[in-house]
TrEMBL record, chains A, B:
<dbReference type="GO" id="GO:0045892">
    <property type="term" value="P:negative regulation of DNA-templated transcription"/>
</dbReference>
<dbReference type="Pfam" id="PF09182">
    <property type="entry name" value="PuR_N"/>
</dbReference>
<comment type="similarity">
    <text>Belongs to the purine/pyrimidine phosphoribosyltransferase family. PurR subfamily.</text>
</comment>
<dbReference type="GO" id="GO:0003677">
    <property type="term" value="F:DNA binding"/>
</dbReference>
<dbReference type="InterPro" id="IPR036388">
    <property type="entry name" value="WH-like_DNA-bd_sf"/>
</dbReference>
<comment type="subunit">
    <text>Homodimer.</text>
</comment>
<dbReference type="Pfam" id="PF00156">
    <property type="entry name" value="Pribosyltran"/>
</dbReference>
<dbReference type="InterPro" id="IPR015265">
    <property type="entry name" value="PuR_N"/>
</dbReference>
<keyword id="KW-0238">DNA-binding</keyword>
<dbReference type="InterPro" id="IPR036390">
    <property type="entry name" value="WH_DNA-bd_sf"/>
</dbReference>
<dbReference type="InterPro" id="IPR000836">
    <property type="entry name" value="PRTase_dom"/>
</dbReference>
<dbReference type="InterPro" id="IPR029057">
    <property type="entry name" value="PRTase-like"/>
</dbReference>
<keyword id="KW-0805">Transcription regulation</keyword>
<feature type="domain" description="Phosphoribosyltransferase">
    <location>
        <begin position="111"/>
        <end position="254"/>
    </location>
</feature>
<dbReference type="GO" id="GO:0045982">
    <property type="term" value="P:negative regulation of purine nucleobase metabolic process"/>
</dbReference>
<dbReference type="InterPro" id="IPR010078">
    <property type="entry name" value="PurR_Bsub"/>
</dbReference>
<protein>
    <submittedName>
        <fullName>Transcriptional regulator</fullName>
    </submittedName>
</protein>
Length: 275, 275
């Protein structure tokens, strides 16, 4: 790269930091990349830090020491989080979304990468201070969500399977009770998918009694992995017996009546969990 | 937002453009956002355009006229594309990845959001001049890929299902022959998932005889949608009869022998398809 002026450096550094969330980038890296003095790089980073923090894009942490540098940590400020949650509520709170069994049609939301990118940032913001090694979800509808969260956290995604169509080599399976239906089902994850000791955040699109998520928690134990947290896009609130207690939800389905075509969906608990 | 200096504006505009690929952003939008003259904004954009194009992040197209502005279109230059493809080849070309039936274990690659983000950009770069309304894939392993491509193209993702566990309302189903196994299978997409007339790019992780992709092409016809292109992460090359002719592949599996634990994987045809 040819030697750049500050204005050009700022553009490139912004791009670079956004591609490397939760990674420590040394000042030396930038200094060599742009053939600029470390003092100039430091000044550049002050400008970026100020903009990122003023606009709520995230924090730019300075890590001192020889193996130090800067680390971009995506966040979201309360105003923007409220706006996003309210947008989701407005979008999801529609009778035409009601499916048999009290589920909601959400494939338009889950299939919207731009919206999910912001949803992922919101979850990442709530996990701001936690050490996370992987995001876990179960196929199929949780996958876009897990991917969006994993992107902001800079960590891989483990996709738990419910079918046995194609083997992925040595598999770990557990049986779980899908709480809503009392059926015993099986979930499977390739042994090589998740390292022992991994700190894992579990996400899913919809949680009713929590049987599926409970299954994933049990599966984590089989991998000697640690549960850091649980996040769902929608929690169905009218459930007498919940198998999962501590989780973050973006929205809450408080009432759904397929016959009367009535639905009531509100904000979830996420806004209380933001820093 | 308070009135910003050029250096701060450049950071915010870079962030903003990266969140809005393939969207026309008017100069007025930026001018109002930063309380800056349009002439200043134009100068800012020249700086960003130069950096984006020099580094191969993408093009910043100027659209003239009243409803004009700028549009960020992610691209990748040939050098970076070659490096990425070679990295994928090195990564995938390992005997321990071989699965029964000549398939490859790829969940570590598919579950790596950072790597997939670059893979998505590479596909988007190959589709640079095409008008695309949606990306389609079939659950499960194609989903992270489709999401990454959709993100760079700024379009939604349609996920075709192979199971019938949960209904998504009115569904469209077609039967297809999974070429590798000669079994008749069913694939399904919710009617409301895809608008008629949509221009669709189909992606999948692995293509052998192309039966699954052929099925998705047939499904497109049921939606009166148009096929723009097909992209796969891995094509298995030793197939006598291919059901799909025109596609883009990042890598090509030229030989796989589960018993001898031998594998040969090379670059696909993507590098010839880049502009």
């Amino acid at each position: 790269m040819k030697k750049l002026k500050r204005s050009s450096r700022l553009v490139d550094m912004t791009y670079f930091l956004l591609q490397h969330p939760h990674e420590v980038i040394s000042l030396t890296h930038f200094s060599e990349r742009y053939q600029a003095a470390k003092s100039s790089i430091s000044e550049d980073l002050v400008i970026i830090k100020e903009m990122f923090e003023d606009e709520g894009y995230g924090a730019l942490l300075t890590i001192p020491g020889a193996s130090g540098g800067v680390k971009y940590m995506p966040r979201m400020n309360k105003d923007e989080a409220e706006t996003l949650v309210h947008q989701l509520v407005l979008d999801l709170n529609k009778p035409e979304r009601i499916l048999p069994g009290g589920y909601l049609y959400m494939m338009d939301v889950l299939g919207n990468p731009k919206l999910l990118h912001e949803v992922g940032r919101l979850f990442a913001a709530a996990l701001y201070d936690k050490e996370i090694d992987a995001v876990m979800t179960v196929a199929t509808k949780g996958i876009p969500l897990a991917y969006a969260v994993g992107q902001h956290l800079g960590v891989p995604v483990s996709i738990v399977r419910r079918d046995h169509r194609i083997t992925e080599g040595s598999m770990v399976s557990i049986n779980y009770a899908s709480g809503s239906s009392d059926r015993i089902q099986t979930m499977t994850l390739a042994r090589r998918s998740l390292a022992a000791g991994s700190k894992v955040f579990i996400v899913d699109d919809f949680m009713k009694a929590g049987g599926t998520i409970r299954g994933m928690v049990d599966l984590l134990a089989e991998f000697d992995a640690d549960l850091v947290g649980i996040g769902v896009l929608v929690e169905a609130a009218e459930v007498s017996e919940r198998l999962v207690d501590d989780y973050v939800s973006l929205t809450k389905l408080t009432n759904v009546d397929a016959r009367e075509k009535q639905i009531e969906l509100l904000s979830g608990n996420i806004l209380d969990r933001l820093h």
